[in-house]
Amino acid sequence: MKKVHPDPKAALDGLLRDGMTIMAGGFGLCGIPDELIDAIVASGVKDLTVISNNAGIDGVGLGKLLETRQIRKMISSYVGENKEFARQFLGGELEIEFNPQGTLAERIRAGGAGIPAFYTKTGYGTQVAEGKETKEFDGHHYVMERGLFADLAIVHAYQGDTEGNLIYRKTARNFNPMMATAAKVTVAQVEHLVQPGELDADFIHTPGIFIKRIIHVPVREKQIEQRTTRKRKDAAPAAAGGGAV
């Protein structure tokens, strides 16, 4: 089966529909499947439930889907960088299911492993636990969390081969690997696409069996979530000694 498609639109052809659940990988703006997100924006599908650690920033990544009002619900952990997200949430226009970050990661991992639910201490006695089953084990209280499984997962990888074996780079290993396993169909965008056998098998993070479609995105603008700079030092002082007093 040929997995490589010529562009994001072709890779998502026949997979998108209103009301579906989509997982989008990455952390902040690192390792986000931006080309695939743009294709979802262009498709016009709406009433989406999106599972992602964060919602990008205004005008970048998932922030674009928020601006076009295509997202009905977000299942997320950290959303503090997106003003439009905050505006829609505070205005009652967007449904939010907040998760502690580790809990969100484990819910996704559990979904990919076929585990329907698990218990965690995190969130017990807080708003996170409201409406959820709790249980005591060995004198400690736990909250039951459901595993997450999506209709579609979109991920970004640094390297991949045409069979779908993927290698992620640094911060992009947050959420991308587990999301690739936790959906009916996973589509990957890959920066460096090679032939089977060219990747070191010991370094593959996602086996190709999880990846159904691939696009090659060799040239990308690297977005920065928060640009922090330091003032340049003043010009170096003149060398000491030798001058007139």
From TrEMBL:
The keyword Transferase applies. Pfam families: CoA_trans. Keywords: Transferase. GO terms for molecular function: CoA-transferase activity. InterPro entries: 3-oxoacid_CoA-transf_A, CoA_trans_fam_I, CoA_transf_BS, NagB/RpiA_transferase-like. Residues 223-245 are annotated as: Disordered. The keyword RNA-binding does not apply. NCBIfam families: pcaI_scoA_fam. PANTHER family: ACETATE COA-TRANSFERASE SUBUNIT ALPHA, KETOACID-COENZYME A TRANSFERASE. Belongs to the 3-oxoacid CoA-transferase subunit A family. This is Succinyl-CoA--3-ketoacid-CoA transferase. The gene is pcaI.
